[in-house]
From TrEMBL:
CDD domains: ABC_DR_subfamily_A. This is ABC-2 type transport system ATP-binding protein. It comes from Anaerovirgula multivorans. Keywords: ATP-binding, Nucleotide-binding. Residues 4-233 form the ABC transporter domain. GO terms for molecular function: ATP binding; ATP hydrolysis activity. It comes from the Bacteria. InterPro entries: AAA+_ATPase, ABC_transporter-like_ATP-bd, ABC_transporter-like_CS, P-loop_NTPase.
């Protein structure tokens, strides 16, 4: 079943078209990685997938059109933005309880869901430190835990491992792998080829608002392009060809 499908999607900020002709699907339990240089349009695509931006052209289907209301879609979705969206003066537990209540959780369910979400990214709710006193990696893990509170079926993550320590990065990648094994469908952006090749079932390579390659990892393996070196060499060839044909 297609959980999410972009059909010829375009988006422009005023007159500036930043993505165009974007078509791809995210199946159940798939991790689709968006890889591309700064400004390629990754965050724009993720914001559209998360229903925060409306395409200026084309459509996005959820569950093969079975879900159409933004409210219903958001109930099944977790969104992790690039910026940390937590209250600095509160602890991890207080933040999780606060956002959990916003999701409508209370009592025992709120406690259990908060603990489970914390556990997914190795965060203990017993810590009394405030968010503002924590490292960037800890903040990011707690930010992810917040998105997991409603046990989302679709997770949209914008560069979840950028600029953090190695340990936090490993915890986040492990959580993503565990979520995938549980059947969660994940759409995420990254700059790291190694991470994407290890984790994803499919890669979308973006440049200047367009998809320049959409390949499953299985296909890449078949052509021997599933190592960082061979994949990046092919990508560089593409950019080189572009330059020489202009
Ligand atoms: N609010 C905005 N107003 C105008 N232009 C914008 C706005 N947000 C993004 N853009 C432009 O849209 C294009 C795509 O940006 P986007 O953030 O989607 O790229 P990205 O691939 O996520 O980049 P990065 O890796 O730097 O996060 C860029 O040219 C950017 O300057």
């Amino acid at each position: 079943m297609k959980i999410l499908e972009f059909q010829d999607v375009e988006y422009g900020y005023k007159t500036n078209k930043v993505i165009e002709a974007i078509s791809f699907t995210l199946g159940k339990g798939e991790i689709v990685g968006l890889l591309g240089p700064n400004g390629a349009g990754k965050s724009t695509i993720l914001s559209i997938a998360a229903t925060l931006l409306k395409p200026t052209k084309g459509s996005v289907l959820y569950y093969e059109k079975r879900l159409q209301e933004h409210k219903e879609i958001r109930r099944l979705m977790g969104f992790v933005p690039q910026e940390i969206a937590l209250y600095g003066n509160m602890t991890a537990k207080e933040n999780l309880y606060f956002f959990g209540e916003l999701y409508g959780l209370k009592g025992e369910e709120l406690r259990i869901k908060s603990e489970e979400a914390g556990e997914m990214v190795a965060i203990s709710l017993k810590e009394t430190q405030k968010i503002k006193e924590l490292s960037g990696g800890m903040k990011r893990r707690i930010n992810i835990a917040v998105a997991l509170l409603n046990s989302p079926e679709i997770l949209v993550m914008d560069e979840p491992t950028v600029g953090i320590d190695l340990q936090s990065k490993q915890y986040i990648l492990k959580a993503m792998e565990d979520l995938k094994n549980k059947g969660t469908s994940i759409l995420y952006a990254s700059h790291h080829t190694d991470e994407i090749l290890n984790l994803c079932t499919r890669i979308l390579l973006l440049n200047e608002g367009k998809i320049i390659a959409d390949q499953s990892i299985k296909e890449l393996k078949k052509y021997g392009l599933d190592t960082v070196k061979t994949f990046e060499e092919e990508v560089m060839k593409f950019f080189f060809q572009q330059k020489t044909t202009v």
